[in-house]
Amino acid sequence: MAKVVVVGAGLAGLAAADALLAAGIEVTVLEARDRIGGRVWSVPFAGSVVERGAEFILPENTSVESLAARFDLPLVRKGTSYGRRIPRGEEAVPMPELEAVFDRIAAGEPTPGAETVADAIEELGLEPRMAAVIRARMEVSTGHPADDLRSEVLGEGAATFGEFDSYSIGGGNAELARGLARELAGAIHLSSPARWVRWEDHGVTVGTDVAELDAQAAVIAVPTAPLDEIRFEPPLRGPTAEALRSVRYGQNAKLFVALRAPSRPSAVLAVRRRFWSYTQLGSSGQPAPFATAYAGTSRAIEALADSAGAERWIEELAALRPELELDPEVTLLSTWHDDPWVRGSYSARSASSPLLSKELSEPIGPLYFAGEHTAGDWHGLMEGALRSGERAARQLLRAATP
User: Fold this and answer.
1) How far apart are CA 259 and CA 329, in angstroms?
2) CA-wise closest residue to 255 among 178, 324, 352, 354
Protein backbone atom coordinates (compact mmCIF):
# COMPACT_ATOMS: atom_id res chain seq x y z
CA MET A 1 0.00 0.00 0.00
CA ALA A 2 1.43 3.38 -0.97
CA LYS A 3 -1.18 6.04 -0.35
CA VAL A 4 -4.07 6.85 2.00
CA VAL A 5 -6.43 9.83 2.07
CA VAL A 6 -7.49 11.03 5.51
CA VAL A 7 -10.68 13.08 5.62
CA GLY A 8 -10.60 15.44 8.60
CA ALA A 9 -7.75 17.19 10.42
CA GLY A 10 -9.11 17.05 13.94
CA LEU A 11 -7.13 15.06 16.49
CA ALA A 12 -8.54 11.76 15.18
CA GLY A 13 -7.56 12.37 11.57
CA LEU A 14 -4.17 13.80 12.49
CA ALA A 15 -3.42 10.86 14.79
CA ALA A 16 -4.33 8.39 12.05
CA ALA A 17 -2.22 10.22 9.48
CA ASP A 18 0.71 10.43 11.90
CA ALA A 19 0.63 6.68 12.59
CA LEU A 20 0.36 5.85 8.89
CA LEU A 21 3.23 8.18 7.99
CA ALA A 22 5.38 6.54 10.66
CA ALA A 23 4.67 3.19 8.99
CA GLY A 24 5.91 4.49 5.61
CA ILE A 25 2.52 5.25 4.08
CA GLU A 26 2.05 8.35 1.93
CA VAL A 27 -0.87 10.33 3.33
CA THR A 28 -2.95 13.26 2.18
CA VAL A 29 -5.18 14.97 4.75
CA LEU A 30 -8.26 16.92 3.62
CA GLU A 31 -9.73 19.45 6.03
CA ALA A 32 -12.92 21.40 5.37
CA ARG A 33 -12.08 24.23 7.76
CA ASP A 34 -9.37 26.83 7.28
CA ARG A 35 -7.60 25.52 10.38
CA ILE A 36 -6.58 22.21 11.90
CA GLY A 37 -7.82 20.80 15.20
CA GLY A 38 -11.57 20.42 14.67
CA ARG A 39 -13.27 20.77 18.04
CA VAL A 40 -9.90 21.45 19.67
CA TRP A 41 -9.70 25.20 19.19
CA SER A 42 -7.51 27.45 21.36
CA VAL A 43 -7.82 31.22 20.91
CA PRO A 44 -6.50 34.39 22.59
CA PHE A 45 -8.82 36.04 25.10
CA ALA A 46 -8.33 38.67 27.83
CA GLY A 47 -4.56 38.39 27.60
CA SER A 48 -4.65 34.62 27.97
CA VAL A 49 -5.69 31.55 25.93
CA VAL A 50 -9.09 29.88 26.17
CA GLU A 51 -10.46 26.62 24.77
CA ARG A 52 -13.49 27.15 22.57
CA GLY A 53 -13.83 23.38 22.38
CA ALA A 54 -12.13 20.45 24.14
CA GLU A 55 -10.55 21.62 27.37
CA PHE A 56 -9.97 19.20 30.25
CA ILE A 57 -7.27 16.54 30.36
CA LEU A 58 -8.53 14.06 32.94
CA PRO A 59 -6.95 11.16 34.84
CA GLU A 60 -5.87 8.21 32.68
CA ASN A 61 -5.81 10.32 29.49
CA THR A 62 -2.59 8.54 28.61
CA SER A 63 -2.66 9.15 24.84
CA VAL A 64 -2.93 12.89 25.41
CA GLU A 65 -0.15 12.78 27.98
CA SER A 66 2.13 10.75 25.68
CA LEU A 67 1.57 13.12 22.79
CA ALA A 68 2.29 16.13 25.00
CA ALA A 69 5.53 14.50 26.17
CA ARG A 70 6.51 13.70 22.57
CA PHE A 71 6.23 17.38 21.59
CA ASP A 72 7.61 18.65 24.89
CA LEU A 73 4.35 20.42 25.72
CA PRO A 74 3.78 21.25 29.40
CA LEU A 75 0.68 20.03 31.21
CA VAL A 76 -0.76 22.92 33.20
CA ARG A 77 -2.76 22.11 36.33
CA LYS A 78 -6.07 23.94 36.14
CA GLY A 79 -6.86 23.89 39.86
CA THR A 80 -10.56 23.78 38.98
CA SER A 81 -12.54 21.17 40.89
CA TYR A 82 -13.91 19.43 37.80
CA GLY A 83 -15.47 16.66 39.84
CA ARG A 84 -16.88 18.71 42.72
CA ARG A 85 -19.17 21.48 41.48
CA ILE A 86 -20.97 23.29 44.28
CA PRO A 87 -24.70 23.80 43.60
CA ARG A 88 -26.05 27.26 44.33
CA GLY A 89 -29.47 28.88 44.31
CA GLU A 90 -32.83 27.52 45.33
CA GLU A 91 -31.83 23.94 44.51
CA ALA A 92 -28.53 23.94 46.43
CA VAL A 93 -27.93 20.91 48.65
CA PRO A 94 -25.44 20.21 51.46
CA MET A 95 -22.17 18.96 49.95
CA PRO A 96 -21.76 16.03 52.39
CA GLU A 97 -25.18 14.72 51.33
CA LEU A 98 -24.29 15.17 47.67
CA GLU A 99 -21.01 13.30 48.18
CA ALA A 100 -22.94 10.46 49.81
CA VAL A 101 -25.14 10.15 46.72
CA PHE A 102 -22.07 10.16 44.48
CA ASP A 103 -20.67 7.31 46.58
CA ARG A 104 -23.88 5.32 46.14
CA ILE A 105 -23.75 5.75 42.37
CA ALA A 106 -20.05 4.84 42.22
CA ALA A 107 -20.82 1.71 44.23
CA GLY A 108 -23.27 0.52 41.60
CA GLU A 109 -26.62 1.96 42.59
CA PRO A 110 -29.31 2.01 41.39
CA THR A 111 -30.07 -1.63 40.66
CA PRO A 112 -30.10 -2.70 37.00
CA GLY A 113 -33.36 -2.27 35.15
CA ALA A 114 -33.60 1.45 34.53
CA GLU A 115 -33.54 2.34 30.85
CA THR A 116 -32.53 5.99 31.10
CA VAL A 117 -30.55 8.24 33.42
CA ALA A 118 -33.83 9.88 34.44
CA ASP A 119 -35.18 6.44 35.44
CA ALA A 120 -32.00 5.61 37.31
CA ILE A 121 -32.11 8.86 39.29
CA GLU A 122 -35.73 8.16 40.19
CA GLU A 123 -34.80 4.68 41.43
CA LEU A 124 -32.28 6.24 43.83
CA GLY A 125 -35.25 7.61 45.78
CA LEU A 126 -33.72 11.03 46.36
CA GLU A 127 -35.51 14.07 47.68
CA PRO A 128 -36.43 16.43 44.81
CA ARG A 129 -33.64 18.97 45.23
CA MET A 130 -30.96 16.28 45.28
CA ALA A 131 -32.46 14.53 42.25
CA ALA A 132 -32.47 17.87 40.40
CA VAL A 133 -28.77 18.40 41.15
CA ILE A 134 -27.78 14.95 39.89
CA ARG A 135 -29.88 15.36 36.75
CA ALA A 136 -28.42 18.81 36.07
CA ARG A 137 -24.88 17.51 36.53
CA MET A 138 -25.45 14.77 33.95
CA GLU A 139 -27.24 16.97 31.43
CA VAL A 140 -24.61 19.71 31.59
CA SER A 141 -21.77 17.22 31.12
CA THR A 142 -23.36 15.26 28.28
CA GLY A 143 -25.34 18.07 26.64
CA HIS A 144 -28.23 15.66 26.30
CA PRO A 145 -31.57 15.25 28.16
CA ALA A 146 -31.50 12.73 31.00
CA ASP A 147 -34.67 11.05 29.77
CA ASP A 148 -32.83 10.02 26.56
CA LEU A 149 -29.48 9.07 28.10
CA ARG A 150 -28.82 5.38 28.63
CA SER A 151 -28.97 4.50 32.32
CA GLU A 152 -25.34 3.33 32.48
CA VAL A 153 -24.23 6.90 31.74
CA LEU A 154 -25.00 7.72 35.37
CA GLY A 155 -22.50 5.14 36.59
CA GLU A 156 -19.93 6.19 33.98
CA GLY A 157 -20.36 9.76 35.15
CA ALA A 158 -19.48 8.69 38.67
CA ALA A 159 -15.87 8.47 37.50
CA THR A 160 -15.88 12.26 37.17
CA PHE A 161 -17.39 12.90 40.62
CA GLY A 162 -15.10 13.77 43.50
CA GLU A 163 -11.71 15.45 43.86
CA PHE A 164 -8.91 15.02 41.30
CA ASP A 165 -6.56 17.20 39.31
CA SER A 166 -7.28 18.18 35.73
CA TYR A 167 -4.96 19.76 33.20
CA SER A 168 -4.67 21.52 29.87
CA ILE A 169 -1.76 22.05 27.51
CA GLY A 170 0.40 25.10 28.11
CA GLY A 171 -0.28 27.53 25.27
CA GLY A 172 -3.58 25.79 24.46
CA ASN A 173 -4.72 22.27 23.65
CA ALA A 174 -4.47 23.08 19.94
CA GLU A 175 -0.70 22.72 20.39
CA LEU A 176 -1.33 18.96 20.21
CA ALA A 177 -2.81 19.37 16.73
CA ARG A 178 -0.05 21.74 15.67
CA GLY A 179 2.59 19.26 16.78
CA LEU A 180 1.03 16.51 14.68
CA ALA A 181 0.60 18.87 11.73
CA ARG A 182 4.30 19.78 11.77
CA GLU A 183 5.14 16.10 11.41
CA LEU A 184 2.83 15.89 8.40
CA ALA A 185 4.47 18.88 6.70
CA GLY A 186 2.73 19.63 3.38
CA ALA A 187 0.31 16.69 3.51
CA ILE A 188 -2.56 18.75 4.96
CA HIS A 189 -4.91 20.65 2.64
CA LEU A 190 -7.13 23.22 4.37
CA SER A 191 -10.44 24.57 3.06
CA SER A 192 -10.75 21.31 1.13
CA PRO A 193 -13.95 19.50 2.13
CA ALA A 194 -14.44 16.03 0.69
CA ARG A 195 -17.58 16.12 -1.47
CA TRP A 196 -17.70 12.53 -2.68
CA VAL A 197 -15.94 9.20 -2.21
CA ARG A 198 -15.96 6.53 -4.89
CA TRP A 199 -14.79 3.20 -3.53
CA GLU A 200 -14.35 -0.46 -4.34
CA ASP A 201 -12.67 -3.31 -2.53
CA HIS A 202 -9.12 -2.26 -3.39
CA GLY A 203 -9.17 1.47 -3.85
CA VAL A 204 -10.84 4.82 -3.38
CA THR A 205 -11.12 8.16 -5.14
CA VAL A 206 -11.95 11.22 -3.04
CA GLY A 207 -13.29 14.33 -4.73
CA THR A 208 -13.04 17.92 -3.45
CA ASP A 209 -14.23 21.09 -5.17
CA VAL A 210 -10.98 21.30 -7.13
CA ALA A 211 -9.33 17.89 -7.20
CA GLU A 212 -9.69 14.11 -7.27
CA LEU A 213 -7.33 11.97 -5.23
CA ASP A 214 -6.76 8.27 -5.83
CA ALA A 215 -5.61 6.04 -2.99
CA GLN A 216 -5.64 2.47 -1.78
CA ALA A 217 -7.76 3.35 1.30
CA ALA A 218 -9.27 6.25 3.21
CA VAL A 219 -9.68 7.13 6.87
CA ILE A 220 -12.93 9.02 7.42
CA ALA A 221 -12.45 11.13 10.56
CA VAL A 222 -15.34 13.59 10.55
CA PRO A 223 -18.48 13.86 12.72
CA THR A 224 -21.55 12.11 11.41
CA ALA A 225 -23.63 15.16 10.40
CA PRO A 226 -21.17 16.40 7.73
CA LEU A 227 -20.38 12.78 6.90
CA ASP A 228 -23.98 12.42 5.80
CA GLU A 229 -23.37 15.13 3.19
CA ILE A 230 -20.46 13.30 1.55
CA ARG A 231 -21.72 11.28 -1.41
CA PHE A 232 -20.44 7.72 -1.28
CA GLU A 233 -20.48 5.61 -4.45
CA PRO A 234 -21.68 2.97 -3.78
CA PRO A 235 -23.69 4.17 -0.75
CA LEU A 236 -22.57 2.97 2.69
CA ARG A 237 -24.61 0.02 3.90
CA GLY A 238 -24.48 -2.56 6.67
CA PRO A 239 -24.01 -2.42 10.47
CA THR A 240 -21.30 0.27 10.43
CA ALA A 241 -23.33 2.55 8.17
CA GLU A 242 -26.41 2.08 10.34
CA ALA A 243 -24.37 2.81 13.48
CA LEU A 244 -22.99 6.01 11.94
CA ARG A 245 -26.49 7.18 11.09
CA SER A 246 -27.65 6.50 14.66
CA VAL A 247 -25.08 8.74 16.40
CA ARG A 248 -26.60 11.59 18.39
CA TYR A 249 -24.68 14.60 19.66
CA GLY A 250 -24.96 16.54 22.88
CA GLN A 251 -25.34 20.30 22.64
CA ASN A 252 -23.13 22.52 24.76
CA ALA A 253 -21.97 26.12 24.77
CA LYS A 254 -19.22 28.07 26.52
CA LEU A 255 -19.18 31.65 27.68
CA PHE A 256 -15.94 33.36 28.61
CA VAL A 257 -16.05 36.61 30.62
CA ALA A 258 -12.98 38.64 31.55
CA LEU A 259 -12.32 39.32 35.23
CA ARG A 260 -11.41 42.75 36.58
CA ALA A 261 -9.73 41.06 39.56
CA PRO A 262 -8.16 37.59 39.85
CA SER A 263 -10.14 34.77 41.43
CA ARG A 264 -8.83 31.49 42.78
CA PRO A 265 -9.99 28.23 41.12
CA SER A 266 -13.64 27.41 41.75
CA ALA A 267 -16.51 25.34 40.39
CA VAL A 268 -20.18 26.25 40.85
CA LEU A 269 -23.30 24.60 39.40
CA ALA A 270 -26.44 26.49 38.33
CA VAL A 271 -28.97 23.67 38.63
CA ARG A 272 -32.03 25.31 37.15
CA ARG A 273 -30.21 26.98 34.25
CA ARG A 274 -28.12 23.92 33.40
CA PHE A 275 -24.64 25.41 33.39
CA TRP A 276 -21.59 25.32 35.58
CA SER A 277 -19.12 28.13 36.09
CA TYR A 278 -15.45 27.81 36.87
CA THR A 279 -12.29 29.79 37.36
CA GLN A 280 -8.84 28.30 36.97
CA LEU A 281 -5.10 28.76 37.03
CA GLY A 282 -3.19 30.04 34.03
CA SER A 283 0.10 28.72 32.64
CA SER A 284 2.03 30.75 35.22
CA GLY A 285 0.24 29.05 38.09
CA GLN A 286 -1.57 32.26 38.96
CA PRO A 287 -5.37 32.74 38.61
CA ALA A 288 -6.43 33.13 34.99
CA PRO A 289 -7.97 36.50 34.03
CA PHE A 290 -11.37 35.13 33.03
CA ALA A 291 -14.31 33.03 34.19
CA THR A 292 -15.93 30.31 32.12
CA ALA A 293 -19.55 29.13 32.02
CA TYR A 294 -20.48 25.86 30.32
CA ALA A 295 -24.08 24.97 29.48
CA GLY A 296 -25.60 21.66 28.44
CA THR A 297 -28.68 20.70 26.36
CA SER A 298 -30.29 22.61 23.52
CA ARG A 299 -32.98 23.97 25.83
CA ALA A 300 -30.41 25.49 28.16
CA ILE A 301 -28.48 27.10 25.32
CA GLU A 302 -31.65 28.60 23.87
CA ALA A 303 -32.57 30.04 27.27
CA LEU A 304 -29.14 31.58 27.83
CA ALA A 305 -27.97 32.80 24.44
CA ASP A 306 -29.14 33.45 20.91
CA SER A 307 -27.86 34.90 17.66
CA ALA A 308 -27.92 38.39 19.21
CA GLY A 309 -25.51 37.44 21.96
CA ALA A 310 -25.26 36.14 25.51
CA GLU A 311 -26.56 39.05 27.59
CA ARG A 312 -29.04 36.82 29.43
CA TRP A 313 -26.28 34.36 30.26
CA ILE A 314 -23.98 37.10 31.51
CA GLU A 315 -26.76 38.28 33.81
CA GLU A 316 -27.35 34.73 35.08
CA LEU A 317 -23.62 34.27 35.66
CA ALA A 318 -23.37 37.54 37.59
CA ALA A 319 -26.30 36.50 39.78
CA LEU A 320 -24.79 33.07 40.39
CA ARG A 321 -21.28 34.38 41.10
CA PRO A 322 -21.58 37.75 42.88
CA GLU A 323 -18.10 37.26 44.32
CA LEU A 324 -16.54 37.53 40.84
CA GLU A 325 -15.65 40.94 39.40
CA LEU A 326 -16.89 40.26 35.88
CA ASP A 327 -16.19 42.59 32.97
CA PRO A 328 -19.33 42.17 30.81
CA GLU A 329 -17.77 44.25 28.04
CA VAL A 330 -15.14 41.57 27.35
CA THR A 331 -16.81 38.27 26.51
CA LEU A 332 -16.64 35.40 24.04
CA LEU A 333 -19.41 32.90 23.25
CA SER A 334 -18.54 29.54 21.72
CA THR A 335 -21.17 27.21 20.24
CA TRP A 336 -21.00 24.11 18.08
CA HIS A 337 -24.61 23.39 17.06
CA ASP A 338 -24.30 26.08 14.38
CA ASP A 339 -20.90 24.93 13.12
CA PRO A 340 -21.59 23.26 9.73
CA TRP A 341 -18.65 20.86 10.13
CA VAL A 342 -19.91 19.23 13.34
CA ARG A 343 -23.38 20.54 14.49
CA GLY A 344 -22.92 19.33 18.04
CA SER A 345 -20.40 19.19 20.85
CA TYR A 346 -19.66 15.46 21.19
CA SER A 347 -21.45 12.14 20.90
CA ALA A 348 -24.06 11.19 23.49
CA ARG A 349 -25.16 7.76 24.67
CA SER A 350 -28.75 8.18 23.58
CA ALA A 351 -31.27 5.62 24.78
CA SER A 352 -33.48 5.95 21.72
CA SER A 353 -30.58 5.91 19.22
CA PRO A 354 -27.73 3.97 20.85
CA LEU A 355 -24.04 4.67 20.32
CA LEU A 356 -22.95 1.30 18.89
CA SER A 357 -19.26 1.28 19.76
CA LYS A 358 -18.26 -2.03 18.13
CA GLU A 359 -19.97 -1.34 14.82
CA LEU A 360 -18.71 2.25 14.68
CA SER A 361 -15.10 1.08 14.75
CA GLU A 362 -15.47 -1.48 11.94
CA PRO A 363 -14.32 -0.63 8.39
CA ILE A 364 -16.40 -0.82 5.24
CA GLY A 365 -14.18 -2.16 2.48
CA PRO A 366 -11.20 0.25 2.15
CA LEU A 367 -12.92 2.87 4.33
CA TYR A 368 -11.82 3.16 7.97
CA PHE A 369 -13.65 5.33 10.49
CA ALA A 370 -12.25 7.47 13.30
CA GLY A 371 -13.45 10.27 15.56
CA GLU A 372 -14.45 10.51 19.20
CA HIS A 373 -17.85 8.98 18.34
CA THR A 374 -16.05 5.74 17.42
CA ALA A 375 -13.96 5.57 20.61
CA GLY A 376 -16.24 3.54 22.87
CA ASP A 377 -15.78 4.40 26.54
CA TRP A 378 -13.48 7.28 25.56
CA HIS A 379 -16.06 9.05 23.41
CA GLY A 380 -16.47 12.78 23.91
CA LEU A 381 -12.81 13.31 24.84
CA MET A 382 -9.56 14.34 23.15
CA GLU A 383 -8.29 11.02 24.48
CA GLY A 384 -10.98 9.22 22.49
CA ALA A 385 -10.21 11.14 19.31
CA LEU A 386 -6.52 10.24 19.49
CA ARG A 387 -7.18 6.60 20.34
CA SER A 388 -9.69 6.28 17.51
CA GLY A 389 -7.22 7.61 14.95
CA GLU A 390 -4.51 5.28 16.16
CA ARG A 391 -6.95 2.35 16.07
CA ALA A 392 -8.06 3.12 12.50
CA ALA A 393 -4.42 3.28 11.39
CA ARG A 394 -3.69 -0.10 13.00
CA GLN A 395 -6.70 -1.67 11.28
CA LEU A 396 -5.63 -0.31 7.93
CA LEU A 397 -2.02 -1.45 8.34
CA ARG A 398 -3.11 -4.95 9.38
CA ALA A 399 -5.31 -5.20 6.31
CA ALA A 400 -2.42 -4.09 4.10
CA THR A 401 -0.03 -6.72 5.47
CA PRO A 402 0.07 -9.85 3.27
Assistant:
1) 10
2) 324
